[in-house]
Amino acid sequence: MATRINTNFTLIPNHKYRRSNRRSSYISNTCDSDSQPLSTLGDFKALPLEIFQIILRYLSGLLFKRCTLLLPTKERLKCIHKILAEVSCFKFNGCATPMQCLGLSCYGMFLQTLTAGWDELECHRVYNFLCEMTNLSRKMQTTVFSRPGSARKLELRIRLFCRNVLLDHWTQQSDSAFWLTRILKPWPMVNQARLLYIIFGPIAPQDGQVLWHKMIEEPTDESSVKGLADAIKLLYDTGIKEWTADDVISLVDELSVVPREWLLENNARLLILSGNNICFTFMASKAVNRRTIELSRLIVFLALVCEKELYCMDWTVKMMQKVCKVFSTSVERVTFLQNVANAFACVIMEMLQSVVSGDRDEEERNFLNLFHLVHAQANFHKEVLYLTMNTLST
Question: SS3 for 203?
């Protein structure tokens, strides 16, 4: 059984050279709507529509939270849903241009304000109510049991609703983990992996369609797997009782074959971005199950990603060193190290073959990949020599 393990080296590989990654995030607090006053608003129905929109825009959920304070949770939800249902952009399928619309983001901020301070049981009721009102569970069922990409519009709607309404507005990781758990846990592991890819996987920037084949066709970049890695870390690091270490590692394993087996380089990139604990636990699981050939090839691609992204190669060597300690005998450790050396040779030959047999465009891309791998091998073995010399001198 996998256990949660705290490593004693860098959380992610350090860059060889300091690079500035200034990122800004902006969440608008405004929301254009076509809402109409309701008879249930009492004295509010006498207000001009513009004033009601200002109240909705700037007081968000706080006003409604206080107005419904004395009602039971279910009645509060019904009341609020009746009001918000008048704004088409707050509906699951309400907006014709969902990628540009702020409606669901406003809904999410409203929900965050409303449920702040509520206990888990009440939040469970909120999620169940939302599923009932939007038929979310049935929509998810349609996507996870369909061929990937056959329901593109529905996949996009599920992604936007889950991210903008349920997941993206929480300041505490434990809150985000709670809602993500509500989304995933009703489903078997294979469907959890599919949902995770729909919600956090790479999408086309122009129309938001999920890129199902991106991980299986060619090496990808950090931005394509960062959302998935962050979601995995969220489930692992927050210590929610519904998720054991075995659960999270099984989810990572299942994710790496959605919709088919990923390129090992993309799998390695996901593990690096997921952090030391998950990466080591994943690899230790393979060591325990004697999947040494598979593990050896993974080491090669961890080194390749470190070389491409200018991460310090000593991270990969230290990770390999920790994995070695999982093996119970010296014979097993020596065999594993021999397999790593052989894996470098085999992968280099495979890439060389792809350079020779590919067309011009593929030849240039494959040659660049081979170039990085040869340098990765050299830097990897350099770090091994440094480690050996340091050990001998102490």
Answer: strand
Q: CA 329 → CA 7, 281, 282, distances in Å?
A: 22, 19, 20
Burial 254-285 (b: 16+ CB within 10 A, else e): bbbebbeebbbbbbbbbbbbbbbbbbbbbbbb
pLDDT per residue as tens digits for the range 277-333: 999 999 999 999 999 999 999 999 999 999 999 999 999 999 999 999 999 999 999
19-to-14, 155, 276, 309 alpha-carbon distances in Å: 10, 35, 21, 11
Torsion sign (Cα): 289, 290, 294, 298? positive
116: Cβ–Cβ under 8 A, 6 or more apart, which residues? Answer: none
* C-alpha separations of 44 from 39, 69, 70, 83, 284 in Å: 9, 17, 19, 12, 62
Q: pLDDT tens for residues 136-186? A: 999 999 999 999 999 999 999 999 999 999 999 899 999 999 999 999 999
Q: Could you tell me the pTM of the whole model? A: 0.84
Alpha carbon distance 37, 41 (integer Å): 7
**Biggest distance spanned by C-alpha atoms of the chain:** 84
